[in-house]
Design a protein that fits this description.
This protein is of the alpha+beta class. The protein contains six helices and twelve strands. It has one domain. The protein starts with a helix and ends with a strand.
């Protein structure tokens, strides 16, 4: 479960990013399951490709999304090798394991505005809920609720391409977390993807978000989840740059060993 929640943390960091030739720097904070403190993050998006970098201590975690090639690359700064996922096959596999009919996702205006990174952001309340079977075990059912405010800058630099990227990814059945974690909790991964689509539908970029993830269940799950408690995550954009980006940012370094994953 810890790997699943770390994946959610990385996913949430992506929610505040822009698309096309845009570089977004932000700070992210997580609390729960041994995670705490600030983690600097940088996201680069160029057309149908995105690179996310999140720094934990002296290690930088990198995820590259290539929608056209249907490939996801995951690696870190400590090893010269990258895991490669065929997302067309993975999306098909994931669709067989999750019942999206249980998903509920809303993003409603809260009537507030505030200044973030020199831009005026409009406040929304996010609420994503979905049932999930831990490890696919129907006897270990739980409900995952992700709630909190999201501050969106409409018409922000790169917003049109940002919206295009996420909508195209969701249409292809993509997720935005580590596929290894998504295999154990496919409902969470699908719920997060739907959240990004809803943000894209508004036509802006999330400059700030502050969420709490709560999990509940019955029987043996109730006691286990009560011990874990809630997990909170937040991210705030600090700068946005719309300068051109080099193509080689969106592929693993040429001297890296590529490890196909299923």
């Amino acid at each position: 479960m810890k790997n699943t929640l770390v994946a959610i943390f990385l996913s949430l960091a992506l929610a505040g990013t822009a698309a096309a030739d845009v570089t977004v720097k932000q700070t992210t904070t997580g609390k729960g399951l041994g995670m705490s403190g600030n983690a600097p993050a940088t996201t680069y998006i160029k057309g149908n490709k995105m690179r996310s970098e999140v720094q934990f201590g002296d290690k930088t975690h990198v995820t590259i999304f290539d929608l056209d090639a249907q490939k996801m690359y995951i690696f870190d700064s400590k090893k010269k090798e990258a895991d490669v996922w065929d997302m067309a096959d993975f999306a098909q596999e994931l669709s067989k394991k999750v019942d999206v009919s249980s998903m509920k996702a809303t993003l409603k205006p809260n009537g507030q505005t505030k200044q973030i990174a020199g831009a005026t952001a409009t406040g929304y309340e996010m609420d994503v809920s979905m049932q999930s079977a831990m490890g696919g075990n129907q006897q270990m059912m739980m409900t995952v609720d992700l709630q909190g405010p999201v501050w969106i800058v409409k018409g922000a630099p790169g917003a049109d391409d940002y919206n295009h990227f996420y909508k195209a990814a969701v249409e292809k059945g993509w997720i935005f977390s580590d596929p290894r974690a998504a295999k154990g909790q496919p409902a969470q991964a699908k719920a997060m993807a739907e959240m990004y689509k809803q943000i894209a539908d508004i036509g802006g970029i999330a400059y700030e978000s502050d969420q709490q993830i709560k999990m509940s269940g019955e029987g043996p799950m109730a006691g286990l989840l009560a011990k874990i408690g809630s997990i909170s995550f937040s991210s705030t954009v600090t700068t946005v740059d719309t300068g051109a980006l080099a193509d080689d940012l969106f592929t693993p370094p040429p001297d890296y060993k590529l490890n196909p994953k299923k």
